[in-house]
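pasting input
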Amino acid sequence: MNDAALIDQLIALIGPQAVLRDAADLEPYLQEWRGNYRGTAGVVVRPGSTAEVAAVVKLCAGRGIGIVPQGGNTGMVGGAVAEAGQIILATDRLTAIRELDAEGDHITVEAGVVLAQVQAAAEAADRLFPLSLGAEGSCRIGGNLSTNAGGTAVLRYGSMRNLVLGLEVVLPDGRVWDGLRALRKDNTGYDLKQIFIGAEGTLGVITAAVLKLFPRPRSVAAALVAVPDPAAAVALFGRARAEAGGAVTGVELMPRLAIDFALRHVPGVIDPLAEPHPWYVLLELSSTAADAPLAQQLESILAHALEAGLVDDAVIAASEAQRRTFWHLREAIVEGQRHEGGSIKHDIAVPVARVPAFLERATAAVEAAIPGARVVPFGHLGDGNIHFNLNQPEGADRAAFMGRGAEINHRVHDIVAAMGGSISAEHGVGLLKRDEVAERKPAIEIELMRRIKQAIDPAGIMNPGKVVRA
Amino acid sequence: MNDAALIDQLIALIGPQAVLRDAADLEPYLQEWRGNYRGTAGVVVRPGSTAEVAAVVKLCAGRGIGIVPQGGNTGMVGGAVAEAGQIILATDRLTAIRELDAEGDHITVEAGVVLAQVQAAAEAADRLFPLSLGAEGSCRIGGNLSTNAGGTAVLRYGSMRNLVLGLEVVLPDGRVWDGLRALRKDNTGYDLKQIFIGAEGTLGVITAAVLKLFPRPRSVAAALVAVPDPAAAVALFGRARAEAGGAVTGVELMPRLAIDFALRHVPGVIDPLAEPHPWYVLLELSSTAADAPLAQQLESILAHALEAGLVDDAVIAASEAQRRTFWHLREAIVEGQRHEGGSIKHDIAVPVARVPAFLERATAAVEAAIPGARVVPFGHLGDGNIHFNLNQPEGADRAAFMGRGAEINHRVHDIVAAMGGSISAEHGVGLLKRDEVAERKPAIEIELMRRIKQAIDPAGIMNPGKVVRA
């Protein structure tokens, strides 16, 4: 960015401290944490209010300068990467919790509030904000909204989209749409907030939101269950739903190899079962009732599943501390994988009943393509959402393995498509999947997306090139 | 419709039986059930498949003929009224349940399936489809989707929008968008289905949907609670949530006058309490656990509320039959009102905590405007959604009273607006509220709605004139 006049104007609008240009200052905004992308933008602006966001957007709109909104920069698909000539609009100074209404069960937060802070504020008011995911300590609400974030509580509470009552958005021409309503029902026209949620910043900058709060679970019980195969895991899930209904709030699938990686590389990880088993399910029940007999229910579910041959072994958490170790094990998988060389990843969803068939076909396909590849598929079985990752064969050349990523992605995604699935269940499109999404979706859908982009951002300045080509 | 060539073409596309032109055949499609609107269209088409819908829309698009989609014709806002020169596209032959996947907890239905049939199909598979509202015996799923229907289960399950996994839509040019996905997570671009849900047929014709199913509640307990005033009702709701959390699934508010109207005019209505009281709450707990101790929980909630002076009297349903009589009482209010002369109605929502203040101000305003008007505000307290209706003073002239409807609406809606509320919580916009919505919403929001309408239906043939002026 060599446009000195623009810089002067930005400084005039939001102050010199809020306009970053030094390489060291820019660094954390340019580097994508997985290492797949590196931005080349020369300026980061950090507006401190909605009015400042609006002023910056208006200035850029007048000059046709592309704006890349950025939250915690924890995305997986290059959605927050900015090219030279574009500016990064960081939300990290929009950190006010504007209101918490415990009686009304809602909280109004600015886009830059870190997810864990929203969770903590809710808990302090004896409420639950249910969105929960690995990056919760650093991802920001604006990013969660813009990517329609998922995570481990979707089975019961839905994705981020389902947790929103109202939005405040700076539109691509710099005007502010104040849609910060705290209403449970409102049918006064098109539900505009839905357009901005999940749009990855391509239609405007979300600056604040009214989010739903929920009664806090007062009872919880979890089991780590060894199962012979994914089909047994799906059947176990079905039995749990039949016996415990809506109390089934967590169903995570893990293969043995994922456990091995976590045990090998991540401190504090414990395998609570005596023998190794091919597959595991972390099954959790919860209830807002204080004295719900969930542990007994879990025992009953597991006893019936054992009789039916669906379960090899299981342990029910005897304490809150032990329950946390189960989740630590689950959450350590990503870190464990990172120490086992290159990893080719997929974030797919299929209807839950098709997960076993998907795993069988996809595993066979990638093992045929790369003999010795170590397949480590894990994730949110209850949503049909599997992170189908494969690590390089032991001792293989990392670069050569990673060089086959696109080919492997294609093979796996062909199987997903044939099963009516999604090639981006929770991580979004960004740059990484834009062209593949365009190839795989019906042309009519891409056309509708383009028409919406054109209708809301006719000048194409909002997060240019992301999600859908202009 | 005197265009004989068009009629011939329609008949060629979908058969003579499916193109209605006789006055007697047209009648049920032209008359709005509340008597506020009467259509003047000369033709109703009843396509029997998505392909036939597409063929009809394509034909009309080519000739610039307006299409008014119509489901059960149970709407409240004139959204399905068609003028001369337009055609009504009735969904009442699109009645297939295409698939029910109990394991995957979803059902695929065509737009013309009656809501009660979806509920029954779910129940037969030991599942719940939670949408529940007065017209459920005759309203159709396409209408529920197009109006984002609400009702009595929103507190726990959300509005119709929250119950949808996928849609099939015939676009305004006659092409079919097949978005019938059965995925719990899918972030591969803008979530197009959100645009069509709640659009009241102005952006395309929804022909089928994949809907979520849920575990069926196995325990339920309900109480009819007499409370001194709406503030006590809100406080009781708060206490119930504090004690029973997510088990609180129904919270309906009723004034004594509503009970009197129901008792006077509707067979089978019983007042289970010995004395009359100023206000009532129908409070229901439910759980998917088979043996949840909900009646005890309800007793405990009521005992604490009694101590706190929030409750005057209460009765807990001793049987399923008695529980049904509580709901019969609640549902009889609308019918009861109809026998008490003219009724000026409002379908408003405010944040839950503001319901008492709203009721106080709005009641004072309308009683000052029309002395003797009988205010009967009832509805979904848990959602902040009140049907603020007033009946004419006893013995007053009906026409004179109804003639003041617009003025009264304006007074009440001014109070709603001042409280950050919605002037159409669950019934939608249609013709009835289009111009008032345009006046009251921020101009930027109406502009965004127009841009979306223009982007998806540039020729303006889909349900012309509804929701937002072109």
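fyi The CA atoms of residues 109 and 295 of chain B lie 36 Å apart.
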